[in-house]
Amino acid sequence: MNSDQSGSVKSVEVAVQILDVLANADRPLRVTEIARSLGMTKARISRHLQTLQSPGLVGRDANGTGYVFGQKLLHYARVAICRSSVVEAAQPFLRHLRDVTGHTAMQTVPIPGGALVVAALGHELKPGVAIQVGTVLPFPQSPSARMVQYFDANNVPGSTANTRTFNVSELRAKLATFGVEYEDDGLGNGFGKIAAPIFGSNGNLAATVGVILSSSLLSPSPHPGLMEQIRSTAALLQAHYADGAVSPLMPAFRRAG
């Protein structure tokens, strides 16, 4: 490999390192912060950021002071997610869930700080609550986002990491009793959500499936039959996608009553 080729490879490696730093950050980062994280000079990081910014792989935040993922990179991410096996596998199960419940069925996948809606199927004959694909459900208000935090791969049984801003005992009790997590109006918009976890073959949380509906239908608690429909649909999807896979943090299911 000649010096030009070696330099090009090194530039790609640095670019990937910068994207890794941005991916693991929960806010826009300044050049100084990225440089400090990678142990490189500000001048070197600035050059690479300019190169990445040109095709839209990184961008500036609203204040123009920090760097974030660019629109082109977000587009690539959406395409990759929509083509992932768990999203493809879930489609017939989401249709079934929509039809048996009469509510909008949705699927999310984990992202830093929350959960991303990757599929939402409303009922054509029974207009209900709509939610857009690409919506980010924030932690800790969203049941899906709370499960993302709870089942984080960095957690181990008995760990309290990433779980200090919501009631872990309550979440575990819901999962053990109903097989789902729910929230009647976590965002104050009149909508509630019920979600069940789906695990990958490695035991990590791969997705959640559930419904979004009027919060009035979740107060004081969801109908047991509705929660069972969601739990059983999730169990069918789990068997189809990664049969037998489960997180060590998932409590044993003991049917209510």
From TrEMBL:
Keywords: DNA-binding, Transcription, Transcription regulation
Gene3D superfamilies the UniProt entry points to: 3.30.450.40, Winged helix-like DNA-binding domain superfamily/Winged helix DNA-binding domain
Stretches assigned to the IclR-ED domain: 72-243
Residue ranges of domain HTH arsR-type in the record: 1-91
UniProt GO MF annotations: DNA binding; DNA-binding transcription factor activity
Superkingdom, natural source: Bacteria
Biological process (GO), any one: negative regulation of DNA-templated transcription
All residue ranges annotated as the HTH iclR-type domain in the record: 9-71
Record InterPro entries: ArsR-like_HTH, GAF-like_dom_sf, HTH_ArsR_DNA-bd_dom, HTH_MetabolicPath_Reg, Tscrpt_reg_IclR_C, Tscrpt_reg_IclR_N, WH-like_DNA-bd_sf, WH_DNA-bd_sf
One Pfam family per UniProt: HTH_IclR
Descriptive protein name: Putative IclR family transcriptional regulator
